[in-house]
C-alpha cells in the first residue's frame, strides 16, 4: 500500500463520476475549502468531467492568500533590517505587499531564507547567534503543530534570537462567515482533509446542523475528491446535512489530540483579518501569554505600517467563492504568476494560479 | 492548503529532545518530527506537512475505502458507455 497511487485508479474515478452523473437531478454548488484540492481538481480535469449540474466554487483555504496585507508589510519591514535573517515558506516570497515582496528584499541584499520546516528556522537561529532570526508562522490548523513545535523547541533550548510573526487561521470561523453571508451560494462543503487530520471533524457537526449544509471530509487524490463529491451530492439529493468522512485512512473524528493540546499550549484564539475578506471574529491563533517573548511584533517596532491594496484585484471575492478568476479583468493580462497583483495568483494553492496554470477560461 | 505527503518511518531518534525520525518518501529520505505521534513505530506510514507528522495512516481503512468504491462505482456502466 502506497496510500496515493491506489487512489489514482482511473477506472474507479470514471466509475464514481458515472455514479454521480446517475444520481444528480438538479444543480448543486459545492465548495472545496482547500486550495490544494482546487489544484488537484484542475490538474486531473475533474471540474470538466463532472456533470454540468455540479458547480465547484473555490474556498479560502490558501494560507498565503489570506495572510493579511498588514502582516505581509510587517514581514517586509522586519526582513529589510540588516540584523535580521527572515525565514519563510517559499510560497510567501512572491506575495505582493503594499509596494514590494520578499523576493525584492532578498534581491537588494536582505537575508531571506526559504525553509521547509519551521524547526529549520530554529536551527538557523542557533547557527547565527549574532542575528535575529524571524520565522513567518503562517498557516491553517494543518501547519499549527509544526509552527508550535518550533516555538517550544526554541524555548526548551533557550534560543533567545528566535521569534515568530504569526498569522495562523482556522477553518470553522471561515465556514460560518461564508454560510452566514447573505450572498452565499454554497450548498455543500468538501472539508479540508489535512486540517481535519489535526483537528478531527467534530467541530463541523454544529455548523452542518446550524446551516443545514452537508460537510464531507475529503482527501487530495482524484479518487478521494470524486468520493467526497459523490457523498456530498448524495446528501444534497437526499436532503440530509451530516458530516461524513471520505478520507478515513488519514482522518478520524477526534483528530490528533496530542497535536491539539500542543497548539492550545502555544496559541490562544484571536480575531484575525483575512486578506480581501476582512476581520473574522476568533478566526485565528496568536501566541499565548506564556510565549509572548517570541512575538516578533513585540520585538520589532512595526506599528507604523500603512497598507495599500492593489485596486484592481478581486481576490476577496474569489476567496469567498463569489467570483471566478477569469471574471477579473486583470486575470492573465496585468496579473500573472510572474507579476501578480494578488496572492491567489502566486500560491501553489491559489485559485487564480490554478486557473492560469491549467488554462481554464 | 496544507499539502501533506505520506511517508514511511525508517528510523527514530529522540536525542535532540524532540521525537524526530527519518522518513522514506518513495526513495527520498527526509527528517520529520513525530512529537505528536507517541505511538509511532518504524514501518508506520504518516502524513507529513512542513516537516511535521500529523497522523498514522490506516492501511485497513484504505483497503476498506477501495473495496467500497469498487462496489458502489458504476465502472461497468462507464465502460459500456464508451463502447468497450
Please give a quick description of this structure.
With 361 residues, chain A is an alpha/beta fold. Chain A has 2 domains: 1-311, 3-Layer(aba) Sandwich (Rossmann fold), CATH 3.40.50.11740; 315-357, no CATH class. Chain A has 16 helices and 11 strands.
Topology:
The complex is a heterodimer of chains A (361) and B (84).
Chain A lengths: L9 H14 L4 E7 H9 L2 H4 L4 E8 L1 H4 L2 H11 L4 E5 L13 H6 L3 E4 L3 H10 L4 E8 L4 H14 L4 E8 L1 H10 L7 E5 H7 L5 H7 L3 E4 L3 H17 L4 E3 L11 H10 E8 L3 E10 L8 H4 L15 H5 L31 H7 L4
Parallel strand pairs in A: 1-2, 1-7, 3-4, 3-5, 5-6, 7-8, 8-9
Antiparallel strand pairs in A: 6-11, 10-11
Helix pairs in contact in A: 1-12, 7-8, 8-13
Chain B lengths: L4 E9 L6 E6 L2 E6 L11 E5 L2 E5 L2 H14 L2 H7 L3
Antiparallel strand pairs in B: 1-2, 1-4, 2-3, 4-5
Model description:
The complex is a heterodimer of chains A (361) and B (84). Chain A is of the alpha/beta class. Chain A has two domains: 1-311, HypD, alpha/beta domain 2 (Rossmann fold, 3-Layer(aba) Sandwich), CATH 3.40.50; 315-357, no CATH class. Chain A has 16 helices and eleven strands. Chain A has helices at 10-23, 35-43, 46-49, 63-66, 69-79, 102-107, 118-127, 144-157, 171-180, 193-199, 205-211, 222-238, 257-266, 296-299, 315-319, 351-357; strands at 28-34, 54-61, 84-88, 111-114, 132-139, 162-169, 188-192, 215-218, 243-245, 267-274, 278-287. Helices cover 25% and strands 37% of the residues of chain B. Chain B has one domain (5-81): SH3 type barrels (Roll), CATH 2.30.30.140. In chain B, 38% of the residues are buried. The mean pLDDT of chain B is 90. The radius of gyration of chain B is 18 Å and the shape is elongated. Chains A and B meet through helix 1, helix 7, helix 8, helix 10 and helix 13 of A and strand 3, strand 4, strand 5, helix 1 and helix 2 of B.
